[in-house]
Amino acid sequence: MTSALSPSAPAIILVEPQLGENIGAAARAMANFGLRELRLVAPRDGWPNEAARASAALAVEIVDGARLYPDLATAVADLHYIVATTARSRFLAKPVLAPDTAVTEIAERQVADLRCGVLFGKERTGLENSDVAIADAIMTAPVDPAFASLNLAQSVLLFAYEWRKLVNPHSLGRTLPDAPLGAGHRFKASRPAERGELIGFYEHLEGELDHCGFLFPPEKRETMVNNIRTMFARMAPTEQEVRTLRGMVAILRRGPWQGSNKA
Amino acid sequence: MTSALSPSAPAIILVEPQLGENIGAAARAMANFGLRELRLVAPRDGWPNEAARASAALAVEIVDGARLYPDLATAVADLHYIVATTARSRFLAKPVLAPDTAVTEIAERQVADLRCGVLFGKERTGLENSDVAIADAIMTAPVDPAFASLNLAQSVLLFAYEWRKLVNPHSLGRTLPDAPLGAGHRFKASRPAERGELIGFYEHLEGELDHCGFLFPPEKRETMVNNIRTMFARMAPTEQEVRTLRGMVAILRRGPWQGSNKA
Fold first, then answer.
1. Highest-confidence segment of A130-134, B115-119, B173-177
2. B89 close to A (CB below 8 A)
3. Could you give the ipTM of this predicted complex?
4. A94, A108, A151, A219: which one has the fewest Cβ atoms less than 10 Å from its Cβ?
5. What are the residue boundaries of the structural domains of chain B, listed by start?
6. Residue B98: which of A97, A179, A238 has the nearest Cβ?
């Protein structure tokens, strides 16, 4: 069984892109397959960027409509599900998805009115581990490991192509698998929190853990923080669950209302 | 792309089954499709049970080989992934899987040498919410809601049939989807903790939350505990991550090593 669906498209998020030409090429790749929403995190050469506009050609509307953010946390604050594109394994315990699986995961959420985004890192070095840590899943194209050299726009293109295959009824298209209770049900029943709320919880928890001396020694702090964020990203808590998590952290720190604070 | 796989089979776990005849019928359903491992949690009429043996017919070896457990926590302590069969929605925030999806989720783990189990509740009333809370996912057959009346053995049969379709190369069989890094990779890269370790963490956390007065008022305690366990089941932490979680709870309770315990 399959369902007819017209999910809205996810946001393409370029994290610290370097060359304007590559931003324009990514916009063209998006336009080819019907993606429209471009977000830019701290592009190296500033914004607006004439090279990006020139390179975009007929996709210049996407470049002109791109939204600019000072950092990744701000760029994803309103999103519910985030996929991070990486070329290599990251030793972060997240689902690793092929592009065709990633578009299905995203479409199931978009039809439930959850907002999704796909992160692409800067040319050559890609995303930082701290960027990947806030994502729900990793997307890796099944390239030959002996010859893996996708550039930024090609990575965007593969994703956009798979998205189009899924949502365009005139293509060879797949359709979304029908869940027992209807497509998108599992997300309609329990909306994940927006990523900004989740990052707020991370900062609360990490502040308390810093205060208690848990994130120690300093040279391991970043790895510990990335691993903790990865765990809770897998949990994908709802807004109510984020409040519960914050409540638990607060009350564990406070201890019993009356009486001693000894554990 | 697909992968040739021969995953070992998951355990079928009957929670507080009532009639021996139904236990025998469940064993026959298992045997039809190549499942062998039966676990029984506190069967109402005791064990061994002659009615179960008689009803099992040629599947009597499964009945005779069944392992008996006093409670669910003991029955699932060595497992890594647990699916709970329910007829109706439970308002617990877990993935809801159709049987064909459930067998794929299980097979991907079994090929990575993770042990899986499927819970079936007692006749008529099914699983308790507290049983469902420790599972990773819910399995619901796509029955007509106007005429939903699967009995225990029929539920086991549907699951066993889908399992057979997936793993038997001579059937119409599906095959497991190929992950970018190979089938089972995501579980090989990070083994979830055994359920016994996870339940140990739950009890540690809940003990501290009780001590601090968080699980209050008493009439809401069970629901709160089920919701918290459901969140962390979704996280599916590894053994190392369970240790990290326990460490965080302990240090949040203890507070800074030197100085006041005020939050």
1. B115-119
2. yes
3. 0.71
4. A219
5. 2-189, 195-254
6. A179
